[in-house]
Design brief:
The structure holds 2 protein chains of 2 kinds. Chain A contains 8 helices and 20 strands. Chain A folds into 2 domains: 121 residues, no CATH class; 195 residues, Rossmann fold (3-Layer(aba) Sandwich). The termini of chain A are far apart. Helices cover 28% and strands 35% of the residues of chain A. The radius of gyration of chain A is 20 Å and the shape is globular. By secondary structure, chain A is an alpha+beta fold. In chain B, strand 5 and strand 6 form a beta hairpin. Helix content of chain B is 25%, strand content 35%. Chain B has one domain. A 7-stranded mixed beta sheet of chain B has the order 1-2-3-7-6-5-4, with helices on one face. By secondary structure, chain B is of the alpha/beta class. Classes of the chains: A alpha+beta, B alpha/beta. At the A-B interface, strand 1, strand 4, strand 5, strand 6 and strand 7 of A face helix 1, strand 3, strand 4, strand 5 and strand 6 of B. Strand 1 of chain A pairs antiparallel with strand 8 of chain B, so a sheet runs across the interface.
Chain lengths: 326, 141
Amino acid sequence: MSYVLIDKMFLSQRKSLCFAGANCDLSTNSFELVKVLDSVSTIVTGDRQSRFTMRVVVDESSREVIEQPHFRGMHHLVTASFGQANIFVFDILRRTVSAHISSATAKDEKFWREKLIPICLGILGPAMGLVPMHCACLERGGKGLLVAGNSGAGKSTLSAALSQNGFNYISDDWTYMSQSYGKLVAHGTSAPVKLLPDAVRHFPTLRKFDLKTSMNGELAYEIDVAETFLGQIKKTCEPRWLIFLERVQRTGGEFLPVPSSETQAYLECSVERLPTQLSEASAKRDQTIKALVGLPCWRFRYGGTPQSATQYLHEFVAVQNREVYA
Amino acid sequence: MNKALRAHPDLMRRFVATPFHFTAMNGPNLFAVQSNDLEIALGLRRHVLNHWFLGHSGSSSWKIVRDVLAPDNTDTISLFQDGTIRVLQAGTGTILLYDRERSEVLGFLSKKTSVEHMVSCLVPMLMGDLGNSNLSSFTKK
């Protein structure tokens, strides 16, 4: 049996960090981990509401690598283990993450950037007024376009195509929504775009990459948008439009307005249920959802290649901008 | 937008129904247990009546779920404490969480972990002293 007692006095490495608009007070015994997380962090904001504490003990003698994740949660506590050597405990009420990890995990930037930070934001986000939303987010001219849709609708493929065609990439799968001074803000985590094997039809350059098994067991290409598609990555934007993506057989594209009641129903169903112990977090989240429901919303039905869909979206954004200035 | 497609599965098993409830009183102290497994609920109640009330004061609330979906490799036990939260993990699938401040014990028991093992071994480990509590060290084996 082993036991780990986290004593703050011995976590001598301290750093203030920021992920997707949420400030994080890190304490750890590992300088390596501070370096890794600092490289993932954005500039710390002055927002005291969106703040959580992370205490990580790194076992320098352990070299065990990350294994398949196992998540369980009850009331305000959630655990995530990645094998016996890597355990994370999330306390949503107290907004803390406590962890005991191996030295190999501490150095694994990809794990923190692509898995652990999004997991932290997904679990603790609601307590900080941050709503994890299952949608892609692109930005053009300072205005954000949220692209929602069921799995398989083509959010990631379209995000990749848009990032090659004049849109800045924020996220392709999970976007974190918050409110700052009454404005909605969409945050990404610079996670790679995840493209299913058949995306190679539209992006032949993917042939030089290997398929990987992602956290949900799917086989996919995990691609850095900036390196592979020479796209620009942005961390945040102010969302202006919400689009529900729907693939159809016939070639072409059309935009149909979506009533706010339908948007609300979609958003409420797509966020995770929270236990009754987290009623305050639930209320904060409802406020952000209410702001999202106020966005102009369309259903975008399209058939054909993702590259052709980008043309429709360019026209759509141009028309919307003209209407604003008219 | 099909509602069934949109609904999120309960991946963390947060919302497993726990129809078996028991409560017991010892003076002003209330003990409440709930579980999805009658054997767990009865075993905990028996343990509390015979042992817990003798050595502990204050109320406590327990919710333990039999987790048949969890992996069942119960060879290693690890105990982890940060402030008021203590976590015991046996293998991957058995996880017990103790929030001292809120007097709550929450957890999941994998298929192979017996109720007897839980009450006689895991619960005392979770709630007992951490041996010689030399707080200057954060990792002990």
